[in-house]
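FAQ: What does the model actually see?

It sees only this:
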Amino acid sequence: MMELSEFYPAPADLVSSEVRVLNHLRNQPYIKEVQPTFARDTAQYYEQNRANKVRFEFSSSLDIWHAAMMGKSWTNPRNERKRPNLRLVIAMRIERLGQRAYESITYCMAVCRIRTQGNHTILRKFHFDIACNGASSGRRLQQHPRCHLQYCGAMLPRMQQMGCRQAQLDPLHPWLSEPRIFCAPMSLGLLIDMAFHEFPDPRSARFRQDPSWRGLVHEQQELVLLPFHRKCSEIIASQQRLTDEFYVG
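And it is asked to produce this:
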């Protein structure tokens, strides 16, 4: 059975990188001007997480105007000041077992439509998880990938605070864990960068081109993705199947 340490960074290295992401975002001009809630939360979680040796967590939201949902082009400057029609909930948690091991790792993005009077409708919800323990917990009936994408999952506290109702989530069948889709591991910087790439506007596109932000994303690619893809190449070269080698439980 493949150990997590064979392709995934040590807890101290991952957490240090995530703290640097929060530190950058809490003072970034675009975030402070256009996404004040996100800026406030990054500042709060930066202070909370930078000295925490047990847990790293983050939860916030980005309000955006998604041009494609309205049949428009995001590159049109006239659409730059449109009122947001989507709220992206970005959340994650890393639980540590001492200095050298993880208990749990999960990253989440939920897409909610902004309705009138502060109401929201859940449109999408995804988890990017890491299975930290190889042995089955007794609750799972089959093997699952070490790193996987999972659709839906349970309601997030942030979504409840926004007024999202469990009745909206139930049609997505949150009780069903399968399929857990084998994928590359995620990080906070990579998730935020992906969110802005998937839901762009001219200002967020300029933010993504900022050299300091690009440097942080590159750092996390090297830390999280490069060892994973090297391991994938090693497995393929040995004529084994990735979906066998990365499955545990």
